[in-house]
Amino acid sequence: MASAKTQSIFKAAIDLFSERGFEKATMDEIASRAHVAKGTIYYHFKSKEELFSFLVQEGTKLLHESVLSKVNPRKTPTEQIETIIREQLRFFDHYRDFCVILLREAWGDDVRQREFRRMLVHYVHAIEQIMRAGIESEEFLYTKAETGAWSIFGSISMAALHHIFSEPDMDLLLLAPDLTRMILKGMVSQITKDAESLVDEAPRKAQ
Amino acid sequence: MASAKTQSIFKAAIDLFSERGFEKATMDEIASRAHVAKGTIYYHFKSKEELFSFLVQEGTKLLHESVLSKVNPRKTPTEQIETIIREQLRFFDHYRDFCVILLREAWGDDVRQREFRRMLVHYVHAIEQIMRAGIESEEFLYTKAETGAWSIFGSISMAALHHIFSEPDMDLLLLAPDLTRMILKGMVSQITKDAESLVDEAPRKAQ
Amino acid sequence: MASAKTQSIFKAAIDLFSERGFEKATMDEIASRAHVAKGTIYYHFKSKEELFSFLVQEGTKLLHESVLSKVNPRKTPTEQIETIIREQLRFFDHYRDFCVILLREAWGDDVRQREFRRMLVHYVHAIEQIMRAGIESEEFLYTKAETGAWSIFGSISMAALHHIFSEPDMDLLLLAPDLTRMILKGMVSQITKDAESLVDEAPRKAQ
Amino acid sequence: MASAKTQSIFKAAIDLFSERGFEKATMDEIASRAHVAKGTIYYHFKSKEELFSFLVQEGTKLLHESVLSKVNPRKTPTEQIETIIREQLRFFDHYRDFCVILLREAWGDDVRQREFRRMLVHYVHAIEQIMRAGIESEEFLYTKAETGAWSIFGSISMAALHHIFSEPDMDLLLLAPDLTRMILKGMVSQITKDAESLVDEAPRKAQ
DNA sequence: AATGAATGAGAGTTCATTCAT
DNA sequence: AATGAATGAACTCTCATTCAT
Q1: Which of A32, C9, C162, C183 lies at a C-alpha separation of 20 to 30 Å from A100?
Q2: Across all residues in chain C, what is the average pLDDT?
Q3: Same-domain status, C40 and C69
Q4: Which residues have C-beta within 8 Å of that of residue B12, sequence separation ≥ 6?
């Protein structure tokens, strides 16, 4: 599972799936970038789909671990969310290729895409749990936790994705302060916040 | 530009690009779903890329118009953002196929993808302008407008995308209240907000 | 179904399937011998299997028609069998390639092979019917008709097949007198026949 | 030549060549069914062709011995033929896999197939000799011995082959009485035989 | 303005064979 | 004597594009 060849195939595959997308990445090019013969890939992975699946599984597992292992469950939900934002940015910064794959290849009805979404859902669930705890303790405003979690995930991911393409040399961690503030405190400043009634307080029991 | 044939090719193409993605959608299937001969598509569009580009251009133009025409520039930035959230959700709800294409096909280095991003950037710029106005008038907390705009766009888009795949029958507009509250007021409730110092107030001049 | 291209693909396919067998015949070579591009074959036939099936169907249909149309149902079973031997040899002589395919590719558990056998069984059934009629009228010695029919088919086919490979220039029809005599009158001469009791008379009702 | 490994490779190869045919049987599957590593096969056999040739040689040698050792040269040609029919059926019943290989893989222009036919010809020659003796002694009707021998071989083989696929559980020896009668006495009953002149008496010297 | 038969470069995959251990 | 990871040539099949009609 971690021979030198397997490793180098793995690396080349991430590279190329990120660069060209699943469909346009070719096994020929993966092989040549991994400095192995094409047959060697098929000796280690049953098919292109399986290579991709393996990579996605390892990737999301790593995302899950990298981010959530940093979250201290004894801290407040607010602090936990703040950690998630920071660590997810750090992960995306480190694994830019995987980040691109993640946000591009998860949407569709292929088996591979469904499976990918399942792994992603698993990660977002963790955010959802923190939200629920915060709502329970009234530290957070009431929100449908599922929507909230995906909103947070989208906020971080899209900001990261945009910067990966528009400013490739930028350190994505620089986005953390702004994203944290926006996600936790919202856009509207204190001063005007009380006055407005645009946003209805959601009933605490509706869900 | 809008003959009956062109229209039906257009519809079929959106359908299939959304269903299968750019690479897996075939001209054969587009032709058959549009009830025209394959040659006919090439009579109207130079290539698959061009068909896709045309579709992306019309789509983002429509997104731009559908959403921004509803924004009243004489209202407050807060109200404008609220309108954008609602109208973007309405648009995504109406054009789910395009929404999927948008979020899946924009990321990569192909000409087609770059062009797609340029159109998208144009749309997000409009959000950015509103942010800047709000920050200027101190109605909004200070944030790097670019990051903020993409964060908002990501928040709405990802929540929508998730629900498109997990609850296909749901009316996406139902996400509006939660998203609006999260984006404008943030997650943290009033009570605890003052106490915490986790989120540093960003210096007003840094950008 | 009978365009010039389809015809030439058909011819080339028979040629090559006979020359190399189903597995070793390549679509590339079939295409080049048919003077069409490889894609053209796939435009007309879904797959190599389907091309083969089509060819087998046409071939066995032709065998069936060529041989059985010559059989006069008002003549005696003996005469009918004699016709079948002669006409099957004529067919094999004319379509040597198909003859080789027939006897080589029908045995196995692939869908293609099962289907092939079904067509073959259909042909041998016709021989079986004649046998049954002859047995009924006591013109023929009692024999299990199924076994008898396959015995006749095997006798003709194997003799033909052997000569196709060992004496490619020989007219297979020259085999007709010997085969007819052997099949109808057996090997043993009149003189000795009565004396021997080796072959038990089969009970007329056993089947 | 007969180590435990060689034996088990041999068995697995017969199995798979019969099940899938020469081309579709893979060395991987043969190795795995023989419970040896793939390299081991190549240690014992130079190539797939050679493995097949070895197997064919052993098989036809066994056929030759199994059948002809039962033929008593002091008995009449009629009795000898009767023995051959019975014993060939017994052999085919016992080695069904080899029987299928025999009748499927012998026809073609590959070296392997030519060699196979040479072995087969050797066996059929033995039948031919008996025929010649019978013709000489006027116990048999005059027939071109070569044609007659292949006719007999085809008759037995095709009947066996058909039943192997259509009634896998049947004992092939049950075919012996019918085949013996057909081959020795022919289809036509005594009563009508004299009357008919359809089958010309072949001139005794033509060959 | 519209067609669809024809194309061929290029994709994913298989597998007999080799060879260092 | 035996192994199995590695190879790459060769295979089937796909599909955007062309062009004569």
Answers
A1: A32
A2: 92
A3: no
A4: B30, B31, B33, B34
